[in-house]
Amino acid sequence: MLIKPIVKAFFDKETNTFSYVVTDPESRQSAIIDSVLNYDAASATTKTTLADEIISYVQQNSLSINWILETHVHADHLTASQYLKQKVGGAVAISEKIAVVQETFSAIYNLEPKYFNTTRSFDYLFKDGEHFKIGEIDAYNIPTPGHTPACLSYVIGDAVFVGDTLFMPDYGTARCDFPKGSADILYDSVQKLYALDDKTRVFLCHDYLPEGRDHFVYETTITEQKQHNIHIHAGTEKADFVQMRNQRDATLAMPKLILPSIQINMQAGQFPEPEENGIRYLKIPFNFFKSNI
After folding, report:
1. Relative to the CA of 240, which of 120, 128, 139, 175 has its CA 20 to 30 Å away?
2. SS3 letters across the chain
3. How confident is the model at residue 288 (pLDDT cuts 50, 70, 90)?
């Protein structure tokens, strides 16, 4: 029988992001998933408000952090992984296919790709389908690319954390118009998730209030997704999904924080080195994404 982990959700209302602390109830060993570093775009300053809530929860419950897991390189928020690692420990981990994202965006930001090979920003890179432990709970990843080429979903006991692959059934699925994204591939990724046990608890990275709902939700089940997801239920044909997704993506605006988020997150949350004046700088690819996404 699968162990049922304790799942505590933390919500960042500015980016509509859910972060999680997932705990083995026996050993109190835990993982943090998809953390958020608060960021004010107007002043280019960061705060640790949400991360400090996570730290307080970890300390108050005497938890031991094994992992700080990223489902993918987020384009809508900065990760707090380095701050959390400093405060509560844990190995910062992501898919080994992060190299594809780093290579793609190194060209866009005019960075040296070899930099990522020498700095080893992430503590651990998962191979597709690799198994690991959180205390006594068996866990493994399912590669679920489409939104990005390096997306992973983490199966932990009776729960799966799907990142941006799926949203609540009444909201649908993730966009696929970022570099190396693919609606065709996302369809196949969702089928992997739908092959899980119907009772599997599904935890989402985001929720956006659709018309007719007045409260945020972060948990559903495989059954509910298969029966009711408005974009990709059990009977949805691939061609129909790809056409819908591509048409919808063509109408979407850029995520507000994509330009700072990508260059921080593909380095595991590490900030750029200070320049001679002691100030750190982010790069902005001027007029690039306007015509390429």
Report:
1. 128
2. CCCCCEEEEEEECCCCEEEEEEECCCCCEEEEECCCEEEECCCCEEECHHHHHHHHHHHHCCCEEEEEECCCCCCCCECCHHHHHHHHCCEEEEECCHHHHHHHHHHHHCCCCHHHHHHCCCCEEECCCCEEEECCEEEEEEECCCCCCCCEEEEECCEEECCCCECCCCCCECCCCCCCCCHHHHHHHHHHHHCCCCCCEEECCECCCCCCCCCCCCEEEHHHHHHHCCCCCCCCCHHHHHHHHHHHHCCCCCCCCHHHHHHHHCCCCCCCCCCCCCCCCCCCCCCCHHHHC
3. confident
